[in-house]
Hints:
By secondary structure, the chain is mainly β.
Amino acid sequence: KKKKxxxxxxKLVGPxxxxxxxxELSDLxxxxxxxxxxxxxxxxxxxxxxxxTLTLCNLQPxxxxxxxxxxxxxxxxxxxYGLHMKRLPDQLFDLENLRVLSIIGGSISKGFPPGIDxxxxxxxxxxxxxxxxxxxxxxxxxxxKLSQVTIISDHNDLRNTPEFFALKTLQxxxxxxxSSNDRMLPPEIEQLESLEKLFLRG
Length: 202
């Protein structure tokens, strides 16, 4: 059993040269990879067509996600914790069934590519303590099902993304208020007509 598990693991996080794919991995619904040291995810991850939850945590020296991640058509929750990436792949926004996108810690040096508006079913969007990220993704105001947003950062300011206030379905907003401006929140906050919960954190 131990040898079998090791072989399956190599096919997933190996150098991308593994051939074939085990049926056991293709049937996974929930996958978490944490505290591992490798440079890339194998393209075989795209064959996990039933995967619903993917969590990647503290993977060094991983610098980017494979473009084939956009082929995970059943994915509903994507958690990226402590990853230091140059940018997210454009294909990430092909995940039309994604409901939860959570990015905590780490960094994204080149910000978000355009296209988040293609995630038409996104309901929860979380960014916490992600270094070098100073703006919300362009197009976020077009997500008609987005109901919960969390933005906790010393650098992120809602004023940088005016279209954010077009989110008519937003019910819960958590954000940091570290701006030196006397006004903690812009007056446009009143445009969020469905807002029920507001959390301000210093």
